[in-house]
């Protein structure tokens, strides 16, 4: 009876019911899509910024990230690589070593980050090998070769095929001196990297900097930074023999990205809260109206012996039906729109240049995740349901004689 | 004869201090089973208030009211609702029916609240529908019925669960005189054939003429109480 009455009552004012349903549906659609767009954007940002250089996870000696001293090395990295690659989520793994050095041409000198990479593994870990604009990346067994950021080479006045002299400090203050041939130039689009980075084969690096068979980090990549973040504990377990090692995920490798995301989330949250408040108040208004205009009828029903609690339930079911229709419709549309753009991506012409600097394409791909799908509908439902209690409280205070006197 | 309603010095005073309104003053009256009572008097004489007191919709300021053996003046709100549901049938001047339910469903409504099974209540509702002369109109919504037909549905709903008493407050006030007379004739025949007790508040002289016991109120008091010999 409650259900049938509620259903028919909703159709007494079809226009109002449809408008209320649409208001809920629209807000839900908007929230589902905005969340999926927002998190798709975050994911794109994380992926593209990790893809350039950092990879999805890194194993380092404890404290190296904070204070990267050349002494803090991982022994026998190849042994570790063979262990880690057993984890099915890890697609690529490779060792790296980092040092600081002065690169000199016959006429000029510039300080640079020198990175030792494994030619056979590096292309799976970083997009730098794909960003070679002149020359080529290292082939397997490469020895006295180096690739430079394009800007660095320009500053030095050097071209592919020229020799460059490296002067640095190796382990325990030893001199690291080498002469290397430039075989390629890369352009990542990030000025800091193109001006100050150089890569050379890890084996040559180990000789030059006197750290035989050692590395500073093991870089891992998998399906995504998030996928490997979830695998962190399992990978750490593979290293149990060496408690001095830590596994760093994207939040630890690139704290500024996490901070940017958190900042953006908090401003987005404000928008969502405002959105929910607006739709809740507009619904509260129409719910209240639908109760007030039936005061006389409610008085009559109570006079006949209907308990206020049952009357309240009828109105409560009306509210819940309204929410259910609205939220389901909104969820459906929100999902459809998100799924469509998930496939095609949303292209921002104005942003392409700016995003390219961060290694991103001009498109954002919304993602579909239980959270992006259901967080909006859940909070909208809760908020309106809560507001819907107010008209019901008014019904409970109704006196039949007074109520029937009302026009 | 079984006493259905007994009022002993029932008083209802509205407002406080200087602006007190004595809507019903020390009314003592007894109604027995099968009576057909009209409650007349000028507007504001306390008819509605007295009906509300008897029907458990309002509580007296002082005095005792007993309906079918229950002390209505001492009952809790929830118990009053229960009493109204099971023992009292109401017919109001207007807005009697639930607009979203058909005539038949409106008649079934009370039985539904009482928890009577669907088969039984459908059967009873159909038979009452015929009895009040509305056969074939069961599927219509109140808005699709004339004023007189609506009041017949209200009467049907009031009698279908066989309450101890039916209280009708100006049931004919919104009807033309021919329709009003038909409705009154219907109530009168139901009273005669089924021994259902009626109290009808009205200021329509033709309605009063149709009743056997005529109570007239003035200023919240019973002015005259005349029973016609059969
Ligand atoms: N809720 C109320 N508050 C104050 N005064 C009321 C209320 N209900 C009725 N009255 C007053 O009580 C008196 C009797 O009213 P009522 O019983 O409605 O008379 P009738 O039905 O005979 O016209 C009137 O003077 C009316 O104004
Ligand atoms: Mg009245």
What does this structure look like?
The complex is a heterodimer of chains A (407) and B (230). Chain A folds into two domains: 2-49 and 257-404, no CATH class; 55-250, no CATH class. Chain A has 15 helices and 14 strands. Chain A has helices at residues 2-10, 14-54, 77-84, 150-156, 191-196, 202-208, 225-229, 232-238, 250-253, 255-292, 295-303, 308-344, 349-357, 370-396, 400-405; strands spanning 57-61, 74-75, 92-104, 109-117, 132-135, 145-149, 163-169, 175-186, 197-201, 214-215, 217-221, 245-248, 346-347, 363-364. A six-stranded mixed beta barrel of chain A has the order 3-4-9-6-8-7. In chain A, strands 2-10 form a two-stranded antiparallel sheet. In chain A, strand 7 and strand 8 (175-186) form a beta hairpin. Chain A is elongated. In chain B, helix 6 links the parallel strand 7 and strand 8 (197-201). The longest helix of chain B has 18 residues, at 177-194. The mean pLDDT of chain B is 93. The interface between A and B is medium-sized, with 20 and 24 residues.
């Amino acid at each position: 009876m409650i259900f049938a009455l509620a259903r028919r009552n909703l159709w007494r004012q079809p226009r109002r019911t449809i408008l209320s349903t649409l208001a809920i549906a629209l807000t839900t659609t908007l929230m589902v899509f905005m969340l999926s767009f927002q998190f798709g954007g975050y994911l794109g940002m994380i992926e593209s910024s990790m893809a350039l250089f950092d990879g999805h996870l890194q194993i380092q000696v404890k404290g190296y990230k904070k204070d990267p001293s050349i002494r803090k090395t991982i022994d026998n990295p190849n042994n570790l690589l063979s262990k880690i690659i057993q984890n099915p989520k890890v697609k690529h793994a490779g060792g790296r070593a980092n040092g600081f050095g002065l690169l000199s041409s016959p006429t000029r000198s510039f300080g640079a980050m020198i990175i030792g990479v494994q030619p056979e593994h590096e292309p799976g870990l970083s997009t730098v090998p794909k960003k070679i604009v002149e020359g080529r990346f290292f082939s397997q067994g490469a020895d006295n070769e180096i690739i430079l950021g394009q800007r660095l080479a320009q500053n030095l006045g050097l071209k592919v095929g020229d020799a460059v002299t490296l002067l640095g400090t190796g382990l325990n203050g030893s001199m690291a001196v080498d002469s290397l041939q430039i075989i390629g130039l890369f352009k990542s689009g990030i000025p800091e990297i193109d001006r100050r980075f150089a890569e050379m084969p890890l084996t040559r690096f180990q000789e030059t900097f006197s750290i035989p068979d050692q590395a500073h980090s093991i870089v891992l990549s998998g399906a995504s930074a998030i996928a490997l973040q979830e695998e962190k504990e399992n990978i750490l377990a593979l290293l149990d023999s060496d408690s001095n090692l830590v596994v760093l995920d994207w939040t630890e490798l690139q704290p500024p990205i996490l901070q940017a995301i958190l900042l953006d989330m908090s401003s987005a949250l404000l928008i969502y809260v405002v959105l929910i408040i607006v739709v809740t108040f507009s619904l509260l208004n129409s719910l209240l109206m639908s109760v007030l205009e039936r005061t006389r009828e409610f008085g009559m029903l109570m006079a006949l012996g209907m308990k206020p609690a049952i009357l309240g339930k009828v109105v409560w079911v009306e509210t819940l039906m309204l929410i259910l229709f609205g939220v389901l419709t909104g969820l459906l549309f929100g999902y459809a729109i998100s799924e469509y753009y998930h496939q095609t991506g949303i292209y921002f012409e104005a942003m392409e240049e700016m995003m390219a600097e961060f290694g991103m394409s001009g498109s954002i791909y919304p993602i579909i995740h239980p959270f992006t799908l259901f967080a909006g509908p859940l909070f909208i439902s809760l908020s309106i349901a809560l507001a819907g209690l107010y008209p019901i409280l008014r019904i409970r205070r109704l006196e039949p004689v007074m109520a029937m006197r009302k026009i | 004869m079984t006493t259905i309603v007994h009022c002993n010095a029932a008083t209802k005073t509205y407002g406080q201090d200087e602006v007190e309104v004595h809507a019903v003053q020390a009314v003592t009256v007894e109604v027995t089973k099968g009576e057909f009572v009209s409650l007349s008097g000028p507007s504001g004489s306390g008819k509605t208030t007295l009906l509300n007191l008897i029907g458990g919709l309002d509580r007296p300021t002082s005095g005792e009211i007993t309906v079918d053996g229950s002390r209505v003046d001492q009952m809790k709100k929830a118990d009053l609702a229960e009493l109204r549901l099971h023992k009292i049938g109401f017919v109001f001047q207007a807005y009697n029916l639930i607009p979203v339910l058909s005539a038949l469903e409106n008649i079934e409504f009370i039985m539904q609240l009482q928890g009577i099974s669907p088969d039984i209540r459908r059967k009873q509702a159909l038979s009452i529908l015929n009895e009040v002369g509305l056969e074939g109109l069961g599927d219509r919504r109140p808005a699709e019925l004339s004023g007189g037909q609506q009041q017949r549905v209200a009467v049907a709903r009031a009698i279908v669960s066989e309450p101890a008493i039916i209280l009708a407050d100006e049931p004919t006030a919104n009807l033309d005189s021919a329709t009003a007379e038909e409705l009154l004739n219907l109530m009168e025949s139901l009273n005669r054939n089924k021994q259902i007790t009626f109290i009808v508040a009205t200021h329509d002289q033709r309605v009063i003429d149709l009743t056997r016991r005529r109570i007239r109120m003035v200023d919240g008091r019973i002015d005259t109480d005349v029973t016609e010999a059969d």
